[in-house]
Design a protein that fits this description.
Layout lengths: L9 H4 L10 E13 L5 H8 L14 E10 L2 E10 L9 H5 L4 E7 L3 H17 L5 E7 L11 H11 L2 E4 L8 H17 L4 E3 L4 E3 L3 E4 L5 H6 L2 E4 L7 H9 L4
Parallel strand pairs: 1-3, 1-4, 4-5, 5-6
Antiparallel strand pairs: 1-9, 2-3, 2-10, 7-8
GO molecular function, one term: GTP binding
Family: Belongs to the small GTPase superfamily. Rab family.
Keywords: Nucleotide-binding
């Protein structure tokens, strides 16, 4: 099951709630898998979102990399377990074990390579067949900085996403355009599942019906909430230098 689709900006779709003094935010935990063909920029999107720099020489992910991301959105503290999966064919058989108990999936394709768009359709079918929980689904067309070589139109991507009831975003990891928006849309899809009592919370070792917990937070203004990205990272099964740089420089509340 995918969250309702939208191409509007996150700020228009769902306004942020500013906590007053003494207010507590509910915490939502969820597992997100990022999937797609090799070379579409999955790892670059994650690294960019975590505050890292873009590199044209990112080594292919081996198996999967794990990141922990926290953000504050619409009155919730959202903790995402983000699994960046390998796109290489030789690791394809390993993918289902990373899909297990996922609450959301971000399927990425390269707008300059129509083959990766066709493969995205196969990835959607695969993840939907392997995950029997309600999911927030997001389609992401990456590499808009290379739009002069575009093979997949925005309308084609949008139409595909809407046919799935999924969210859609075009991004450029190279120029850091649309990256934060793509992850915010996934978080919004997860809050929609939560609000409709459809979300299962997942930890690395188990899955259980979600229960909202509370944590005191300092008073923040609207701009601070809109810009905030509190995070920590960890990774497994990876040889990407950029991820190591992010891990060493990251912090968490």
């Amino acid at each position: 099951m995918a969250a309702a689709s939208s191409t509007q900006s996150p700020s228009r779709r769902q306004s942020l709630t500013v906590p007053q003094t003494g207010d507590r935010l509910k915490t939502i935990e969820a597992k997100v898998v990022i999937i797609g063909a090799q070379g579409v920029g999955k790892t670059s999107l994650v690294v960019r979102n975590m505050g890292g720099v873009f590199s044209e020489n990112v080594s292919p992910t081996i198996g999967a990399s794990f990141f922990s991301l926290q953000m504050i959105l619409a009155g919730f503290r959202i903790k995402l377990q983000v699994w960046d999966t390998a796109g290489q064919e030789r690791f394809r058989s390993m993918a289902p074990m990373y899909y297990r108990k996922a609450n959301a999936a971000m399927i990425v394709y390269d707008i300059t390579n129509e083959k990766t768009f066709d493969e995205a359709k196969l990835w959607v079918n695969e993840v939907q067949s392997k995950v029997d929980l309600p999911m927030a689904l997001s389609i992401v067309g990456n590499k808009t900085d290379l739009s002069k070589n575009r093979q997949v139109s925005m309308n084609k991507g949008t139409t595909f996403a809407h046919s799935l009831g999924a969210m859609f975003t075009e991004t450029s990891a190279a120029e850091n355009i649309g990256v934060k928006e793509a992850f915010l849309k996934v978080a919004q899809g997860i809050t929609e599942l939560y609000n409709n009592n459809l979300l299962m919370s997942t930890t690395i070792s188990s899955s259980f019906p979600i229960s909202a917990t509370t944590s005191p937070l300092p008073v923040l203004n609207e701009k601070a909430l809109a810009d905030i990205y509190l995070y920590q990272t960890d990774s497994i099964g990876t040889n990407n230098d950029e991820e190591e740089k992010v891990k060493k420089s990251s912090w968490c509340c």
